[in-house]
Amino acid sequence: MNKKFLSAILFGALMVSSTGTFVSCKDYDDDIDAINKELTDIKSQLAALQTEVDGGNWVTELVDVEGGFKVTFSNGKTYTIVNGKDGAQGEPGTPGKDGNGTIVEVKDGYWYLDGKKTEYVAVKKDDLGKVKVPFINEAGMWVFYDKDGNEVVSEYKALGATYVVEADGVYTLNVPDADGKMQAIKLPTAGATLTDVELLGWAALDKMDKSLSQGSDIQTTLDIEYAFVGKIIQTWDNKETTWSAQKTVAKGQVLTTLAPNNTYLMARIDAGADAADMSFSLKNSKNAVLPVSLSAATEYKGLLSRGANGMYAIALDNTDAVYTGADKYTGQFTNGLYALVEKSGFISNYNLEVTTSEAEVVEGKVAKVDGKEIVVDNDKRYYEVNLNKDNVITFDDVNAKFVYDYYVEAVDPTIAKFFGFSADKSNGTFKVTKLSDEVTYATFDINVYKLHIDGKIYKETITIKPIRTLGNEVVYDLGNVQIKKSMKLNVSLDKMFTALGSDAEIWKNTALGVNGADATIVKDADKSEGPAITYTYKKADGSELANVNGTATQFDAVFSALDGTAATLTPGTGYTITINYKHDSNVLNTIKVKFTPVMPALSSYIAKREALWIGNTLMAYFVDPIKNQTDFASKYEMEKGFTTLGSDADADLTEITFSLDREQKINNVQVQNLANIASDNTITLVTDRDFNQDGNVTEADRWAYGQELNVKVAATYLGGAYKFTDEEIAAAAFKINVQSALKAGKIVPAAGASITLPAAAAGETAKLTADMITGYTYNNQPYSLFKEAAGNYKYSYIDKVEFFTTDAEIYTVTKDATAIKDAEGNVIGYHAEITSKNISQTTNTKIIVKVTDKYGYTKTAELPLTITVGK
To answer: What percent of the chain is modeled with pLDDT above 70?
Structure first.
């Protein structure tokens, strides 16, 4: 653990007088000016800093400046504490410039001053595990500790000093007031806000949004491939040299594959501060530091199967330490586990096992230049690069891990000059700014100097061909596009022309501009090839072009969603069409057209006829019989319940079928045995089986009648090449209740609560007529129970109506209605005749009315009947 303090007065006084000021960055001048007016004594000065701390801010940097030191807080505010005009000059114990601090740090367990070892031990408090830091005693002398933790007064005098000690993640600012008494304030660093750190392991991470899975992508065992750089050798002439390019490497260093392999520690860090402001190392349980460099933590924004919040990635690399041999490096590794340790002393779980293995270094070859692979044109091999772009080199996947650094130079600077070639050695990039005269030179060569981790430098010569490009890549995002049998994407080139700016005129120029194009379509998920597309370019007037040229303003991309009967698209998956517009073989510019084919919503092909539904139940009543109808099966055409059901159009052929739920049972019998749905979506109730096993097949055996039957939906799109989602299919399910419109209705007295008839005179009958009794269908539509004069029922549903007495000792009734005739003997209607018996008083009784419909269902009602006497 590196513990340090800055003592300005060891080498010159800082600020002690009341005339001292706080100086802030420009952005905060107004705020700090207001504070300055209140800084009349040391207490108010400290209060200003305390306000920052109380506000939840922490110190991100504390550095020496001329005449004092500067404190930077996490909110961006900076305060510079400088020497007071009348400040007392301290007596330096070690030479140094007034007003500048010296780093005092711990190495090998001792305090070092300016890199020189003192005899004073940096001991720890056993109970806290924190460094015991020096302090100034009342005599103004620095006090250190011996190896046993006892205070030792040193020879360093520090009377009147303003000094800062950094230890265990906290800066302690000590300022003497006018009486020489020390005023102190503790300023936390980012590490002091840590509450929890969990080291998950390491991962190869080439981008911060890469999806990772714990166990497969994130591992807890890390093997570091290394090589000892005994010499830096040029392999082409075997001469020893030095190296300084993007990185500087010295003899005696140990280089690893950590950085080339994009090796990152993955950790969950919970803190009130940004982990990027913290400083970490890897240590074992014996506090031994692993000789690996850790970068600042970077927030990880990808998907992690663990689902943890506060995820950070910390890049690993070798250090710049030098060794006399590889054994001095490997000797620092132990067999134990390592934890992530913040400089404040906060320790994570021990979850990383680290081993080393000597690398068998193989030369890494150039694979791509600026992301482009080599072009093979007959006997020519070259890499194309765009003008005015910083080009980077990448190496083959297998051996790239051995390439630690590289830079490029022109093989022939004179030729390269024709192309405006320049190279940036410190960044490993090169640029060309001109196309040379192709009659003279079309290409030029560069040397790629590659330093490998074993200190060997390889030289690889590659050929570069500058090409003209017009503008940057333009992306059209069409979003979701509904799948149809024939697909057509219409794309205007206006967006491309806008992006090209003045280069649009070159694109349209007959001599220099576009005269061809190539196009590909791939599925984004796996880069597999998409469907075959026909491109038709059009002019502004809509006329078609045989081939693309500078007059084109738009194009149609036409393709089929079917290859025979097979799907050519994957719904919900993005596709990218890449079109390279060319002048001869030179690519001028590129556009990408992105789209996602999606299924139409199944609900758009299923629309209920709401009048026939109650909630999600289709009320399926047998249709009113028509003249000469002979089929009176208990069935219902379910498609009547929908205004839209599928599509017969070739473009979006959608077939929807229904089936009964095989899991549903009635009286412990599966529903599909009680009813069935045909391929034309007609449901039919089973009426010819003795389900109640009483020896008779009757209406009582029709167990599916009047029940809510579960109906499942199946749907195919474009002949079954595409499928709707399981969720949509499940959501489309409904219920059906198959009934007789008559049986589902009612029969009631026409007026009042009872049918009232006078007792007939001796030898006569009372007449039960249509105005005394009424039938109602399921939806309360009235109908007559008696035939019309012509001998037929007006309500075509009725097959017959029968009447029965409930007490033959009170009255009898004709089972069937009898004709009513006029004086000429013509039938003018029908009624039922009731013959009362010898009753002595008005009597309340009941009469049974039974209506049978043509589908074989009966509606029976027992109605109140009052027979009056003496009226």
So the answer is: 78
